Input
Amino acid sequence: MADIKSTAAPAPVYDEKADNRDVDTSSIHKDGSFSDVHDLDAVLEGSEGVTQRDLDTYRHVADKLPLSAWLVAFAEFAERWTYYGTTNLYSNYIRASLPPGSRTGAVPIADRAGGVAGALGQGQQKAFALRTFNSFWVYVTPWVGAILADTKWGRYKTIMVFSVVCLAGHIILVGSATPSALENQELSVGLLALSILVMGLGAGAIKANVSPLIAEQYTGRLRKEVLPSGETVIYTPALTIQTIYLYFYAAVNCGSAGAISASFLARDHGYWVAFLVPTAIFALVPLVMAAGKKTYVVTPPRGSILLETIRVMRMAMAPAWSINPRHTIRTIKGKGFWDVAKPSYYPEGQVPAHITWDDEFVGEVARTCNACAVFLFLPVFWLCYSQVDGNLATMASAMRLDGTPNDLIQNLNPISILIFIPIMDKLIYPTLRRYKINFSPIKRIFTGFLVAGIAMMYAGVLQHFLFQKSPCHDNEPSACTTADDKPLPANISVWVVSGPYMLVGLSEVFASITSLEYAYTKAPKRMKSVVMAFSQFQVAFSSALNFAFTELNKEEMFGWLFGTFGILSVVTGCIFLWTFWDLDQRESALNVIGTGKREGFEGEDPSMTTTPTSLVKSSGGA
Output
């Protein structure tokens, strides 16, 4: 698979260990690249008549997306509308009490200019705890869907089953917000907790499978085509996968932006109505998935390989274990770390009986571990993101609303993403490729860390000014009221808080979208859902880590919280780039491992087989 950020393929690098053929070393340049006329004109394996010379000569572009990919994107759009149409309201729903005279949480007409909807009156810290648990649970349960999909049901059936589960959770949530339930707060809180558990199970299981399912809809190969303008271009699968995930994420954020109506519904009509609308929209998910069943490319379950994966890792780790941690780390980083787990490592006839795999599978496990190591840094990024649907909304409620619901502002996050995605896809990324600047996944994720850190520093400075301007200063500005319980905000327009929301949105374009793309391209075929689940598990880990900052999640400590997260994000981003710089340089090679035909991959197209030789000779190809 191509280096996903390079339009003109980089000069291939000769690797004598990977290439067993005779190569005229006189053609090898000082930088390690080579030029062999015969190889340049040979058709690359897995392509449709494309040569290395073609890759070096013509512009690389993304292919058209199939209808089935757009259907999956629509299903994700509807699912995300319902997710954000409910979770965006949790802060006010849990934290604030019923407005005076309200039985549904709606704000009386006379008070809507500055009033805040509310229902359960549990306070800021309980609201933080329930929101954080919800985020934790939604990103733990992808493991359930991933394992079931990869071993039993396949991705399509898993999505269908858990969409019904998720719909049941939405119905329970609507019940928690009915006027009769709100009269008994204990009952309402209990139903809310149950709905979080049920919806989280359904949404998480769907989440692990819908991301790889949309990429699987594209089955095109590297090919050359003449456009109506007369220009010859190379349609590159790797660039197409990048485009798929850009627009998949756009569908996610269209759904999130579509939930803007939820804030007005809650304020004007109450929470049961606000929760009922997403429930009705979610009913479209199984309908759309069922309607397009005949058009989907459906990957069957390939059986459990988790046990084999653990055995490979255990064999590779055996020589590395030492009471000296430096020895352990040095061995793990060594070039031959995985060799002991390969059948080829042993003399013929002396391969241990428990080795039931081939060398290619060991390469798949190694690539999976590389990808998962990259994801281990993401919890810090998600700590910054977690402020979007929680503490920033609380900050906004302490400002001058001028008729704008405070939880409406957070929709600037998805709106900004919808603006940034086409700019990046149609302008920034093509320009970088034109000048042969390789803005690879590792570099993009690093940039995401930096932008998220800047967003948090912005929020910290803004919180400082909010404390100065609020009549209550740092004594819970969001709860500052007059003697007759009317809101008493700081004289700062709520739209000033749009800065952190938009910056976090930009950081997601770099880090979050790229993590989806990285999880798909680096995961072996039989482990795509599991690797995707591991990627998303970092959000759950971030939510658990967030509990360590409970003391900073008090409103009077928000400035310290935002500042801490901002500095932590920038520092982590720098460590991330330093740690994976070598991995970044091997981007193309990692994309190729595991794309060939292996034993047990029944029904796989043999023409997609990729050999080590084709890796050396076509580092810019498919």
Q: What stands out?
A: DSSP finds 26 helices and five strands in the chain.
